[in-house]
UniProtKB/TrEMBL annotation:
Keywords: Amino-acid biosynthesis, Branched-chain amino acid biosynthesis, Hydrolase. This is HAD family hydrolase. Belongs to the class-IV pyridoxal-phosphate-dependent aminotransferase family. InterPro entries: Class-IV_PLP-Dep_Aminotrnsfr, P-loop_NTPase. It comes from the Bacteria. GO terms for molecular function: hydrolase activity. Pfam families: Sulfotransfer_5.
Length: 241
C-alpha cells in the first residue's frame, strides 16, 4: 500500500527543506512540483529557466494527476509530493486528491512577497497562490471528510522535532528521526529549476533557526499583501500548534 502525502505550499517558504526532510526517510520517495511544467506552459510566465524546464518535465496535467494518485516510482511505502498551490490552475483535475493525505504550509504574505520580489523582480497575488491554497484546503477536506493539518513554516523552524512529530501524527505516519537532518548537496529528485532557486537549500543540513528577512519591502508590494492576507489569516486560524 502506498501512502501519498501532498505538501501544498506557496513560493519562498520552507517547502524544499521539507521535501529534503521527507526524502531523507528510508521509506519515502519524493516528487518535486509535478505541475510546474503545465503551469508554465499554460500561463506563459517567463520564469527563470523556462525553456529548459519545459523541455525537461511532463507537460500533460491529466497524466500528472494520474501519476500523483499512483504508487511511488520506486515502490517505497511513502510517496511525498511537493506542490505549489498556484500551479493548480483552473481546469486541472482535483479528484485525484481524494486518495492522498495533505499538509498545507503557510507563511506571512509580506515575507513571501518581499522574498519573491527580490528573486523574480516583481510579484503578483497570483504568484503567491494563497487564494488557490485556501481553495485546495477546502477541496481536500471535502473529499476526505478530514481536517488536514495547516502548518506555519516559522513554527517548524522554531521547533523542528516537535512540529514534525505533530505533522506526522496528523497524517497518520510514524515520525522518523531521519527527518531532522540530511546531507548537504544537490538531489536527482530536484526539479530542473533548482539552479535558479535551490542554492540555499543545497547548502543546508537541517531546518535552520528563523532569521530576520534580508529583503526590502517596497510600497508597491502593499496591494499584493492586502489581497493575500485574508486567505493567509483564514488558514492560520486553523494551524497546527
Amino acid at each position: 500500500m502506498t501512502i501519498r502525502i501532498c505538501l501544498w505550499s506557496g513560493p519562498r517558504n520552507i517547502s524544499t527543506a521539507t521535501m529534503r526532510s521527507w526524502e531523507n526517510r528510508p521509506d519515502c520517495e519524493v516528487w518535486d512540483e509535478p505541475f510546474y511544467g503545465p503551469y508554465l506552459l499554460q500561463t506563459g510566465l517567463d520564469h527563470p529557466g523556462r525553456d529548459h524546464i519545459l523541455q525537461s518535465v511532463p507537460l500533460d496535467a491529466l497524466t500528472i494527476a494520474s501519476e500523483c494518485a499512483g504508487d511511488a516510482p520506486g515502490g517505497s511505502p511513502l510517496f511525498f509530493q511537493k506542490h505549489m498551490a498556484q500551479h493548480m490552475l483552473p481546469g486541472f483535475r482535483r479528484d485525484w486528491m481524494a486518495v492522498c493525505r495533505h499538509i498545507f504550509l503557510i507563511r506571512d504574505p509580506a515575507e513571501v512577497a518581499a522574498s519573491f520580489n527580490a528573486a523574480a523582480g516583481g510579484v503578483t497575488a497570483d504568484d503567491l497562490g494563497m487564494a488557490v491554497q485556501r481553495e485546495l484546503y477546502d477541496v481536500a477536506c471535502a473529499l476526505s471528510g478530514y481536517a488536514w493539518p495547516v502548518v506555519e513554516g516559522i513554527d517548524v523552524l522554531r521547533d523542528p522535532e516537535g512540529m514534525l512529530r505533530r505533522i506526522c501524527a496528523a497524517v497518520d505516519v510514524p515520525f522518523d528521526e531521519h527527518m531532522l537532518s540530511w546531507p548537504a548537496g544537490k538531489r536527482d529528485s530536484d526539479g530542473p529549476w533548482a539552479p535558479w532557486w535551490y542554492g540555499r537549500v543545497e547548502t543546508s543540513t537541517g531546518f535552520e533557526p528563523p532569521r530576520t528577512s534580508p529583503h526590502d519591502f517596497p510600497d508597491s508590494l502593499e496591494p499584493v499583501v492586502a489581497e493575500c492576507r485574508p486567505h493567509f489569516e483564514a488558514m492560520r486560524d486553523m494551524k497546527l500548534t
